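So, who can interpret the following?
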Amino acid sequence: MTRPDTATPREDEPGQWHRLSPGMMAVRPVELAPQILPTLVGIFFAAQAAPLIALGIGIVLAPLVTVVPWLATTYQVTDQHVRVRSGVLNRKVATARRDRIRSVETTASLVHRVLGLEKVTIGTGSDKESSNVVLTAVGKQYATSLRDYLMPTGTATAAPADGPDVAEPAHVTEVLARFEPRWLRYSPFSILGMAAAAAVFGFGAQFADEFDLYSVVADAGVGLWDRAGDVPVAVIVVVGVVGIVAAGGVLSVLAYVLSYWGFTLSRHDDGTLRMRRGLVTTTSTTLDENRIRGVHLHEPLLMRPLHGARLHAVATGAQKHPLLLPPAPLEVVDHVSVAVSGEGADLRGPVTAHPAAARRRRFTRAVPGALILSVVPIAGWALGWPSLAAALSCVLVLVAGGAALAELRYRNLGHRLTGRSLVIGAPTTARHRNLLHRDGIIGWSVRSTWFQRRQGLVTLVAASAAGLEAYGVVDIDGTDASRLAAAISPTLIEPFLAPDPLPETQNSAVARYSRR
C-alpha cells in the first residue's frame, strides 16, 4: 500500500491501491464536528461529573473518528477509472469512469491549508452529490496534477513508471476577472446574508437549547418590554426592522468575503476555465470550455440600481449553472460574457416584446394575490385596529405594488434571436436572461395551458443537453413560436410545418415534435 500524494499521478495496476495522506486523521474530526457536537457537549458535562468515564469515552471515540477511517480508505487511478474504497462494516466503492468525468474541484479548508493538503471532488455530470468521487485529503501538488490529468481536455499526462515526477500543468493565457474590494457593495443585496443569518440563528438555537438559555432570554425580554412600555409601537417596529436589516447587511458582507475573497477566473491553454475563490476555505473549480452552451445572467431587483449582476455558465455534464462571476459590476459581467459566449451585449440588450395578452396574464396573476392579502388590513379594521384610512392605504399599497410587479415581470419577458444564439428573458421580478447557443439546442416542444389557449399564447421550450435541459420562451404567440423554432433549427422543424398558417392548430407537429 503506497501513498503517492506528493507526486505526479500514475496509472495504477488493477490491484494497486493507495492510502490518503495521514493528515486525513486531523481533517476528519473537523468535517464531522457539526455531527458529533452533541456528543462532545455530553462528554464535556460528563467530565465534570465523572472524569474517568469521560476519559474512557474519549479514548474509544478518538480512533473511531481519526485512525480507522484513514486505514479503511484507499483509492486508485487507472486509465479506465478512479475508485475510492471506504468503510469498515459497510464497505463502499465509489467509481468514476475516466470518459465520464466532467468536472474536478479542489477545496482546502483551514486545516487542509495548514497541513498542505487539498480535497479533490470528481464529478461525472450527475445532479446527485452521492455520485461524486471524493479524495478527502491529498497533497496540494498531487491534487493540482491530478486535476490537470483527469480533465478530458487537459494537457497533463501520467508520468511513466520509471520517469521523473514532473507534471505538465496548464498555463494561464488570460485572466478574465479578478476580485476587487468595490464588489463588496453588492453583497448586502444578495441572499448570502440571509443564509448566514439563518445559519447563525440555527447554531444559536442549538447552543441555547443545550445550555437552557431560553428562560434567561425570556426573562430579559420581559424586562425590556416593561421598560419600553412608554415607547410607541411604531418606533419599536422601525428599530427592530432596521436592526434586522443592518445585521443582515453585516452578515452579507462577511459571507461574501469568506466565499469570494481572492476570486479569480482565468482561461488556460488546455481549453478550460478555472475559478478560484475563498478566504478561509479555498475552492478551485475547472470547467471545460468545449462543454459551455451559453450563459445565464441574474440581476436581483435590489442590485439593479447599483448596476450589478451574477453570471453563470450553461454547460453540459457539470452543475446546472456553474458560477462564473459572483455579484459584480455590469462592465465586468459583459466582459466575461463576451469572453465565454462570444456575445455579451445581446445578453442585456433589448428583447422582442411578447403580445399584449402576455401583459394581461401578468396582471391577472399579481392583482388577485394583492387583493387576497388586502383581507388582512380589512379584518384588522373590522376588529378595531387600525383605522379605516390606514386599512384603505394598506389595500392601495398592496394593489399598486402588485400592479407594479406585474408590469416589471412583463418588461423582463421576451426573446431575441442573434446570429449565433437565442436570448430568453423570463417573466420574473429579478431579471433572468439565458443565452443559448443555437448548436446547443437539440429539440423543441410547445406547452399550452387552458388559460394560454384562450389568449392565443404558448410556451416554446428549447431542449438542450446543458444546464436545466429545458428553457421556456413563455407566453409567445403560437405562430411566432413556430417561426422562431424553424429559424433556429430549420432541418428539424420545416418538414413538420404546414404550408399555410393554421391559427387554430397551434399545437401542430412542431408543438409535438421533440428530438430525443
In short: Residues 18-169 form a domain with the PH-domain like fold (CATH 2.30.29).
